[in-house]
């Protein structure tokens, strides 16, 4: 056993800091609201009735627990480690995002908020938010970059069907970061009645910790399921990272189990060296954006640079502050997978397991393709299958279309 | 602090004249470096008492469309933190009295390096900083180091700042207090004067610092009404719109300085008892 590192579950500290990362870098107008949210969340966390409701909706509405599935064919295909898939794509709405949205909407109700807003990139968080808003009868506004609206049409339609208003964001570069700016502008203008459901483990404190806690159900279940199946903990965990919520949800319950190796996979786009990527840890530097200090893609003058990824959900120039901290602590290994590697892994998963993964998730599978072959069959590797790929049909057709006789879009 | 700042001088002089300060906001480098320089250098003559100069940022979360676009225009034309500081330095060669406050977001300062930034800013002749995304919870980042360089840290108070929070907001504030007239982004809806007057009076019970009011003030009439009870009136988006709407750099300069002159005339007259109609 190694020396225990200080990855205590008591973080973040009272100021929302994970080491030097995190914090509450927001306009004064939002500060009282954020402090109130922190208090309300602390109460909810320790309130048996809140936890009972959360468990109820996670079960009967979301469909939890999600299975931990032994991917026998994928294991054979790579010929090394035993690969298990944590089937978050089987959740209602098709991804892990709903775990967090259910938690936050319950909090919004507890706080008496009358209106829900959210930002979305690929649209999965937007769909999950629109879903819980519909379920709880709250009007919902989703901010989505105009560029993303173009490439994620099916999700835009889903959100509208669910009764949400989808507002295209053309400011800045019209992608996820600008959608987040616009949601923050809405929030600062409608502080009294609006609850902002942030979709990832980023933003001002308490969001990174709160979203992590709501997503930690993934890791807690995985732990119990693996113990039941194999009588021991997994050897490694692999998850893709945009903002990092599915990875944090998977990793966090294992942080103190030092024998469990964790690998976070960033979107390498056309390669980290090309400059066209979304790998904040592997190709970025520390800075302050969207309420927290973390690693960012930025130029030397502190101006944020656009991220590039085949997957809209990873296309964000930052990363959750706790990941930044775990990166500096060395507790989690952060690597990247390129667009091409992800596309390849995407197809392998489809054909070997009959599971169409989200393009985001395919980045995690791409790392499995690199790592699993060199490991023995006794090595238990869990991949967070964070979402399903139905939403990505258009993008994939665009990239692989000719191969399948699909007309280029 | 024995050091008497330009801001203190300015507010003391205006108190003698019984009028509020006119504070203008422009983004440094908007629409381009040379036009921006001409705009800046002409402001005091047009009647500005205190200059707020925006440090452009790619992701200005607290700004409305006008200032967002201004930042992008400036960045697309190559504006940097170093160039903004250089603008101040050159301005100071001609004008040693008009206070300049740099306004913006933390990241470009953080990346420049806090100590290096403060040293260069002090040397260039910067008097104060307004950094939107640094609440008092993060005072150790920039607010406290700025004091070591005799640079004021101007704090924003907002409609959501309640009595419980106000002492925290005021604790390390210096220069003046910037009261954000409405919950929202810059260039948004106009504040209602009655509510504002009450809010400013409430603030005065807790601070000796001058109180400026900004956000949503566009016209000479609004400036006069608010200047009756505040120590300074800030106009930003309306000036920035003049740049956006101009067809040539000359026209931008003319329009901005023209609006400034109108505003200046208005705030100079707003407390004159013989002109109650204007107020």
UniProtKB/TrEMBL annotation, chain A:
<keyword id="KW-0028">Amino-acid biosynthesis</keyword>
<dbReference type="GO" id="GO:0005737">
    <property type="term" value="C:cytoplasm"/>
</dbReference>
<dbReference type="InterPro" id="IPR001926">
    <property type="entry name" value="TrpB-like_PALP"/>
</dbReference>
<dbReference type="InterPro" id="IPR006654">
    <property type="entry name" value="Trp_synth_beta"/>
</dbReference>
<keyword id="KW-0057">Aromatic amino acid biosynthesis</keyword>
<feature type="modified residue" description="N6-(pyridoxal phosphate)lysine">
    <location>
        <position position="97"/>
    </location>
</feature>
<keyword id="KW-0663">Pyridoxal phosphate</keyword>
<dbReference type="GO" id="GO:0004834">
    <property type="term" value="F:tryptophan synthase activity"/>
</dbReference>
<dbReference type="InterPro" id="IPR036052">
    <property type="entry name" value="TrpB-like_PALP_sf"/>
</dbReference>
<protein>
    <recommendedName>
        <fullName>Tryptophan synthase beta chain</fullName>
        <ecNumber>4.2.1.20</ecNumber>
    </recommendedName>
</protein>
<comment type="similarity">
    <text>Belongs to the TrpB family.</text>
</comment>
<comment type="function">
    <text>The beta subunit is responsible for the synthesis of L-tryptophan from indole and L-serine.</text>
</comment>
<dbReference type="Pfam" id="PF00291">
    <property type="entry name" value="PALP"/>
</dbReference>
<keyword id="KW-0456">Lyase</keyword>
<comment type="pathway">
    <text>Amino-acid biosynthesis; L-tryptophan biosynthesis; L-tryptophan from chorismate: step 5/5.</text>
</comment>
<keyword id="KW-0822">Tryptophan biosynthesis</keyword>
<dbReference type="InterPro" id="IPR023026">
    <property type="entry name" value="Trp_synth_beta/beta-like"/>
</dbReference>
<dbReference type="InterPro" id="IPR006653">
    <property type="entry name" value="Trp_synth_b_CS"/>
</dbReference>
<comment type="subunit">
    <text>Tetramer of two alpha and two beta chains.</text>
</comment>
């Amino acid at each position: 056993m190694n020396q225990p590192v200080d990855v205590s579950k008591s973080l973040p500290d009272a100021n929302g800091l994970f080491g030097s990362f995190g914090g509450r870098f927001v306009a004064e107008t939002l500060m009282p609201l954020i402090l109130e949210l922190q208090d309300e969340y602390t109460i909810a966390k320790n309130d048996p009735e809140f936890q009972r409701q959360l468990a109820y909706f996670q079960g009967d509405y979301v469909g939890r627990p999600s299975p931990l599935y032994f991917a026998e064919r994928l294991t054979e295909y790579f010929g090394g480690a035993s690969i298990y898939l944590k089937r978050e794509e089987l959740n209602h709405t098709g991804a892990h995002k709903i775990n967090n949205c259910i938690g936050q909407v319950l909090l919004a109700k507890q706080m008496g908020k009358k209106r829900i807003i959210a930002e979305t990139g690929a649209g999965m968080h937007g769909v999950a938010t629109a879903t819980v808003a519909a379920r709880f009868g709250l009007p919902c506004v989703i901010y989505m970059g105009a560029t993303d609206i173009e490439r994620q049409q099916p999700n835009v339609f889903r959100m509208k069907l669910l009764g949400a208003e989808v507002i295209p964001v053309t400011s800045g570069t019209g992608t996820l970061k600008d959608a987040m700016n616009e949601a923050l502008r809405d929030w600062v203008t409608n502080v009294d009645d609006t609850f902002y459901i942030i979709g990832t483990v980023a933003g001002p404190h308490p969001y990174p910790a709160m979203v992590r806690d709501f997503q930690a159900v993934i890791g807690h279940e995985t732990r119990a399921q693996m113990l039941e199946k194999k009588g021991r903990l997994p050897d490694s965990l692999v998850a893709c990272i945009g903002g990092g919520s599915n990875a944090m949800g998977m990793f966090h319950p294992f942080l103190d189990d030092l024998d469990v190796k964790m690998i976070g996979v960033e979107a390498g786009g056309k390669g980290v060296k090309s400059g066209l990527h979304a790998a904040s840890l592997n190709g970025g530097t520390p800075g302050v954006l969207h309420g927290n200090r973390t690693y960012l893609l930025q130029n030397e003058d502190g101006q944020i640079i656009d991220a590039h990824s085949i997957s809209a959900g990873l296309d964000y120039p930052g990363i959750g502050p706790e990941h930044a901290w775990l990166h500096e602590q060395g507790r989690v290994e952060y690597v990247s997978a390129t667009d091409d590697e992800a596309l390849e892994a995407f197809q392998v998963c489809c054909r070997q397991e009959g599971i169409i993964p989200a393009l985001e998730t395919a980045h995690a599978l791409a790392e499995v393709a690199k790592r699993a072959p060199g490991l023995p069959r006794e090595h238990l590797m869990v991949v967070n299958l964070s979402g399903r790929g139905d939403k990505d049909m258009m993008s994939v057709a665009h990239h692989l279309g000719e191969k399948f006789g699909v007309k280029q879009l | 602090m024995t050091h008497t700042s330009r801001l203190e001088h300015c507010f003391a002089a205006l108190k003698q004249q019984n009028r509020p300060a006119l504070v203008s906001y422009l983004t440094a480098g908007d629409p381009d470096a040379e036009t921006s320089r001409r705009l800046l250098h002409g402001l005091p003559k047009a009647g500005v008492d205190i200059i707020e100069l925006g440090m452009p940022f790619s992701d200005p979360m607290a700004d409305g469309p006008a200032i967002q676009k201004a930042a992008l225009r400036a960045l697309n034309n190559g504006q940097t933190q170093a160039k903004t500081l250089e603008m101040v330095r050159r301005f100071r060669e001609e004008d040693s009295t008009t206070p300049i406050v740099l306004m913006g977001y933390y990241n470009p300062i953080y990346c420049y390096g806090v100590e290096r930034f403060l040293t260069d800013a002090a040397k260039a002749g910067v008097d104060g900083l307004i950094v939107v995304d640094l609440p008092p919870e993060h005072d150790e980042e920039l607010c406290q180091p700025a004091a070591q360089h005799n640079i004021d840290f101007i704090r924003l108070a907002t409609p959501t700042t309640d009595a419980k929070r106000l002492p925290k907001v005021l604790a390390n504030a210096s220069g003046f207090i910037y009261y954000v007239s409405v919950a929202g982004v810059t260039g948004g809806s106009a504040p209602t004067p009655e509510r504002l007057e009450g809010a400013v009076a409430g603030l005065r019970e807790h601070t000796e610092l001058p109180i400026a009011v900004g956000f949503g003030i566009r016209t000479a009439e609004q400036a006069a009404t608010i200047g009756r009870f505040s120590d300074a009136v800030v106009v930003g988006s309306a000036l920035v719109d003049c740049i956006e709407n101009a067809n040539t750099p000359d026209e931008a300069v003319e329009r901005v300085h023209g609006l400034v002159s109108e505003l200046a005339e208005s705030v100079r007259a707003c407390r004159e008892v013989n002109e109650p109609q204007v107020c």
